[in-house]
Specification:
Blueprint: H1 2-17, E1 20-30, E2 33-39, E3 49-51, H2 58-70, E4 72-74, E5 78-85, E6 91-99, E7 102-104, E8 112-119, H3 129-139, E9 147-149
Parallel strand pairs: 1-6, 5-9
Antiparallel strand pairs: 1-2, 1-3, 2-8, 4-7, 5-6
Amino acid sequence: MYYRLLYLGFKIYCFLFRPVRMGVRVLMVQDGMVWLVRHTYLPGWFLPGGGVERRETLEQAARREAREEAGADLKGISLLGVFTNFIQWKTDHTAVFLSTDFKITGKSDGEIAEVRAFPIDQLPEETYNPHFSLLDAYRKGEKLQNFGEW
């Protein structure tokens, strides 16, 4: 309930101030399985990720968010691309990283309702559409677009 109220407050803030934000997402794939998270305040399944904090690099943010949201310790990571969306009265720029070398080490934080691995060819219907498209292209071995709007 607490996170839902915070999320509502955030949406009001976005409506009033139209912020420009920077975030990260991590595509975590191992042995044909992809790890996704479901938030307590938002329906659907998402790649783990979140906002970049002050004095934090994109890589540091990706590692922190993977640890906080999915309980994952990332070893090697690489940058897939940077994407933009304009939903909910804000401008979000998101750096998407890939990790195929990680270990699930612990629990996620309180904003995450569930963390689960899915076969990459059997994603849940409720997967956030931009993330679904990226995962589908990755699964098919297609050249991934590494910038643009999603």
